[in-house]
Design a protein that fits this description.
The structure is a single chain. By secondary structure, the chain is an alpha/beta fold. It folds into two domains: 159 residues, NAD(P)-binding Rossmann-like Domain (Rossmann fold), CATH 3.40.50.720; 119 residues, N-(1-d-carboxylethyl)-l-norvaline Dehydrogenase, domain 2. A six-stranded parallel sheet has the order 3-2-1-4-5-6, with helices on both faces. A three-stranded mixed sheet has the order 7-8-9. Helix 9 packs across helix 13 and helix 9 crosses helix 14. The radius of gyration is 20 Å and the shape is globular. The chain starts with a strand and ends with a helix.
């Protein structure tokens, strides 16, 4: 199977490596060409000069992009993916369901679009331990199973186009809510004189500990000493898209809206490019 991969950011580069290591005939494209060139040299694979050329070189194109506008430009641009000849397009970034439906409806005749966003941080991407949420039936996913197995530990098929995108937003809303609540809990404990490490020990041993708190512990306790894995700006984007979806569906999301407000405030105060763990630092600054 010839695979094109588009979007070589913190997650995408690891995913592309795993596809190459699994033996797929891989071609890369990235908006910043030097990233594609460097990774191609490492893996011994090809690069494409444009998204159209990437599509022409592949049977399946995987995109791992940051947001709807990025995906729109890559798919529908004058030299975009949809001008090429690939038969399947798999969007694995965090997108709005409306955008996924737009891709599916306006894709070239005879092609298919599947939303298959992933859950897991950069280490999970490196270890091929992502959870894949596929907006399709198991039958539709079956031809792509070797690709999904190369980058993830489990693929959950949710039946219909856009359902993967919805579930990804739901999961991320929970993650960003946990991130915010952790910051508040830690700030409360520290204000009472409990050392951050001791407070985190208790949280980690408690019933409230989610897996993300365990693997993100080093970032919470010393954010500046570790690489950024997920920025505040991306978290704010996720929650804006989720809030828009909640309004469309008529569901209440009071905690999500509060989380979004705090992310907006932190971003405005210079936290945009910092890891989302920096919300703990931000909340410490709000202690009266």
């Amino acid at each position: 199977m010839r695979v094109g991969f588009c979007g070589l950011g913190r997650m995408g580069a690891h995913m592309a490596r795993n596809l190459s290591h699994a033996g797929f005939d891989l071609t890369l494209w990235n908006r910043s060409a030097h990233k594609a060139d460097a990774l191609a040299a490492e893996l011994g694979c090809a690069t494409a000069p444009t998204p159209r050329a990437l599509s022409d070189a592949a049977d399946v194109v995987i995109t791992m992009l940051a947001d709807d506008p990025s995906s729109e430009a890559v798919h529908f641009g004058p030299d975009g993916l949809f001008v090429g000849t690939a038969q399947s397009y798999v969007e694995m970034g965090t997108m709005s369901p409306d955008h996924i439906h737009h891709l599916a409806q306006d894709a070239p005749e005879g092609t298919r679009v599947i939303d298959a966003p992933v859950s897991g941080a950069t280490q999970a991407a490196a270890d091929a331990q992502l959870v894949i949420m596929a907006g399709c039936t198991p039958e539709a996913a079956a031809p792509l199973a070797p690709l999904f197995d190369a980058i993830g530990k489990e693929t959950l098929c949710l039946g219909q186009t856009g359902s993967g995108a919805v579930m990804k937003l739901a999961v991320n809303a929970l993650i960003h809510g946990i991130n915010q609540t952790l910051a508040e809990a830690m700030t409360l404990a520290e204000a009472a004189g409990i050392a951050p490490e001791a407070a985190f020990d208790v949280i980690e041993a408690s019933a409230a500990c989610a897996p993300m708190l365990k693997y993100r512990r080093p970032l919470y306790l010393n954010e500046g000493a570790h690489d950024v894995t997920f920025t505040v700006a991306l978290a704010r984007k996720d929650m804006e898209v989720t809030a828009d979806l909640a309004r469309q569906l008529g569901t209440a999301m009071p905690q999500g809206l509060s989380t979004l407000d705090i992310l907006k405030q932190a971003e405005a105060e210079g936290f945009a490019t910092r890891d989302m763990a920096s919300i703990l630092t931000y909340m410490r600054g709000k202690t009266s």
